[in-house]
Design a protein that fits this description.
By secondary structure, the protein is of the alpha/beta class. It folds into 2 domains: 122 residues, Rossmann fold (3-Layer(aba) Sandwich), CATH 3.40.50; 95 residues, Arc Repressor Mutant, subunit A, CATH 1.10.10.10.
Length: 230
């Protein structure tokens, strides 16, 4: 059985070495890419199971690289964990809007990074193993195939977007608080940044368009998928 393959995009050798050592110690196979403009050729040679992506890179910055990864059908569904500096809140939010599945802020512990990577991979694999097709009005989800259709057109979602939509669809009509969604979709505890949920909901709404049922905001509480049928 082949090992899980992770591409680490990091230009600081000391950080790259620490990440590679700790990930390999957990049984992952790791390739380090030092420049942003070398990533697309690398992932085309071998598509990774996950990309750990620093935002500040020579050659091509991480945000533009995330755009390219999400536009490319080979890597559109590959989970991305972004690494940001502590004061780069705007970049972090933009990164989530571009399709990152999670983020880690510098300075970080290697253990935290490994735990985040494992959590994202676990979510990705649980979706791939889920065979049921879910239909809600004009919305159709096939989690096992990682495919989604809205109003008859296919919508390309990241692993986390699909998981979030699936949870809302399975609990349609019931309000889900941000803390519940952080726990059930991301595996986070309540102290995590709830804006992660808001950012992903905003992305889902933009991708789904006017599809009914809509993702509704319940002010002061959270979100629910409506029950209205077209």
């Amino acid at each position: 059985m082949s090992r899980t393959f992770i591409t680490v995009v990091e230009d600081e050798p000391a950080i790259a070495d620490v990440l590679q050592y700790n990930l390999e110690r957990e049984g992952f196979e790791v390739e380090v890419v030092e420049r942003g403009d070398r990533v697309m050729p690398a992932v085309h040679r071998r598509v990774p199971d996950l990309i750990l992506l620093d935002l500040m890179l020579p050659g091509l910055d991480g945000l533009e690289l995330a755009r390219q990864l999400r536009r490319d059908e080979k890597t559109a569904a590959v989970p991305i964990v972004m690494v940001t500096a502590k004061d780069e809140e705007v970049d972090r939010i933009v990164g989530l809007e571009l399709g990152a599945d999670d983020y880690v802020t510098k300075p970080f512990s290697a253990r935290e990074v490994v735990l985040r990577v494992k959590a994202v991979l676990r979510r990705s694999r649980s979706e791939a193993a889920a065979g049921a097709v879910l239909q809600v009005g004009d919305l159709r989800l096939d989690a096992g195939a990682h495919r989604c259709w809205a109003g008859g057109r296919e919508v390309h979602l990241t692993v986390t977007e699909l998981r979030l939509l699936k949870v809302l669809a399975e609990r349609r009509g019931r309000v889900q608080s941000r803390d519940v969604l952080l726990s059930d979709v991301w595996g986070y505890t309540a102290e995590a940044d709830s804006r992660t949920v808001d950012t992903h909901v905003r992305r889902l709404r933009a991708k789904l368009g006017e599809t009914v049922p809509a993702i509704e905001t319940v002010v002061g509480v959270g979100y629910r998928l409506g029950l209205d049928e077209p």
